Amino acid sequence: MGFGDLKTPAGLQVLNDYLADKSYIEGYVPSQADVAVFEAVSGPPPADLCHALRWYNHIKSYEKEKASLPGVKKSLGKYGPASVEDTTGSGAADAKDDDDIDLFGSDDEEVYEKVKKQRGSEKSALHNMNQRKLKVEPAVVAKSSILLDVKPWDDETDMTKLEECVRSIQADGLVWGSSKLVPVGYGIKKLQIQCVVEDDKVGTDMLEEQITAFEDYVQSMDVAAFNKI
Question: Distances in Å between the alpha carbon of 138 and those of 113, 133, 141, 200?
Answer without folding.
Answer: 38, 15, 9, 15
